[in-house]
Amino acid sequence: MNQLLPLYDVHPISIKLLKKGHPWIIKDKFTDKFQPRERFIVAKERRRPFSLLIHDPKHSNIKARVWSSSGDFGKLIKNFKKDLQQRIFKAIKKRQDLKIIEKRDNIFLIFGEADELPGIKATLLGDQVLIQFYSYFWENYEELVINNIIKTTNQVLNKDITKADVWIQYRADSSAQKKAPKSLDPNCSYKNIQVKEFGVLYNVQLGKLYDYGLYTDMASVRSHLEGIFKDSDSVLNLFSYTGAFSLYSLALGSKDVVSVDLSESYIQDLEENILLNEFDKDSHQSIIDSVENAMNHLNKENRVFDLIISDPPSSSSDKNKRSNALKDYEKLLPKMVKSLKPGGKIIAFLNTHKINRNKFRQKLEQIITENNFPLKITKTLKLAEDCPELRGFPEGSYLKGFILSHD
Ligand SMILES: C[S@@+](CC[C@H](N)C(=O)[O-])C[C@H]1O[C@@H](n2cnc3c(N)ncnc32)[C@H](O)[C@@H]1O
Question: 202: Cβ below 6 Å to ligand 1?
């Protein structure tokens, strides 16, 4: 049987990483030898089949992803379609077991590698389903994936999804042009829908932009912050995007919420979300500016808050500067401390797999120590629930957060 398998040598470092649970093979001189026509590749270690991979010759960087590291690879290739269906079922059943659908209708049905479905993410957004492919491999099985996600979602989560409710987006290559999701309904190119999360309504726009206006992964973090938001009368939301954290705090009774974002159109979306929920407009203030400028103003005005949230993009650029989020905390944290009430809390996020949790913690601790700030790290935040993590796969654990509590 082994002779029939498309056996290939891979880089010794790839073998080492695969053994630790990392599910990707990155382009190198070994992957250059993979035959483009092979859909499946078996990585070998000392002539023995080691890992069954799905092959993506079109991707500029991630050339293969692990399908299985155990079992009879010949049989697994033969049973691929059945196995795929079972994995989709298992992933969606997991969400049903979590019982999150009762609390929010924006949930990940499939979270890629951590659900043993490498390069596939699927999100339920109200009565729409967005399927995102991160690997071109899935072009070969697109129909099968779509049909199975629809069938399983309807069956397990008691939904009534049809093909016309499905949106497809390829996010395979960061070098490729960033395109908005496409509807499978030929007569529809754009839809504005509303989804509900912990009692709050959010506008979601499908077919307009690359992102749909709400970070579903953050919902898994928000659920762990309810108590803190309830205790905070005043909240400053830095890098607010369309305002998910601001709306959450208004819903939980905050009376003084300030949102800061560079983008006028995201702030406009945020304000529409406030209207949609019929929240008291006087409890909210929008600032369209860089966080740096906004903090300088707020500091000058001696504005203070019970809670400050900071969720910067991993690298951001305003008109004249490019910056990196970790380094920026050196300047930003002191400004946040100035605007923090005694006994208040800062929630600092970092949104990149390139810096690990320890390094982020060390950086925050270093800033706290050097400035003698009366702050302590009291809690760690990470992706949870419908966004499971996979050991040995830092790329999947990109979101890190710490709660810093004022003495
Ligand atoms: C990761 S998103 C924040 C997501 C948000 N916390 C949520 O959960 O919905 C980052 C946001 O920062 C904004 N941004 C980027 N650079 C900025 C800057 N220098 N000052 C203010 N906002 C900035 C972007 O427009 C974007 O909306």
Answer: no
Residue 320: what pLDDT? 52
Atom of ligand 1 nearest to the CA of 318: 19
Average pLDDT, the chain: 94
Is residue 291 lining ligand 1, measured as CB closer than 6 Å? yes
Q: What is the pLDDT of residue 198?
A: 94
DSSP calls for 290-321: -HHHHHHHHHHTT--EEEEEE---SEEE-SS-
pLDDT in tens, 285-303: 999 999 999 999 999 999 9
Phi, psi of 327 (to 5 degrees): -65, -35
Which class does domain 215-406 fall in? Answer: alpha beta
Question: Quick one: pLDDT band at residue 267, thresholds 50, 70, 90?
Answer: very high
CATH class of 2-78: mainly beta
Burial track 178-213 (b if 16+ CB lie within 10 A, e otherwise) = eebbbbbeeeeeebebebebeebebbbbbbeeeebb
* Cβ–ligand 1 contact at 218 (below 6 Å): yes
The atom of ligand 1 lying closest to the CA of 241 is 27
Residue nearest to atom 20 of ligand 1 (CA): 290
Does the pLDDT at position 122 exceed 70? yes
Which of 195, 261, 295, 383 for a ligand 1 pocket mutation test, highest count of atoms within 8 Å of Cβ? 261
pLDDT tens-place string over residues 188-215: 999 999 999 999 999 999 999 999 999 9
Domain ranges (residues) in the chain: 2-78, 80-189, 215-406
Looking at domain 80-189, its CATH class is: alpha beta
> What spacing in Å lies between the alpha carbon of 240 and ligand 1's midpoint?
6
Cβ(314)–Cβ(324) under 8 Å?
A: yes
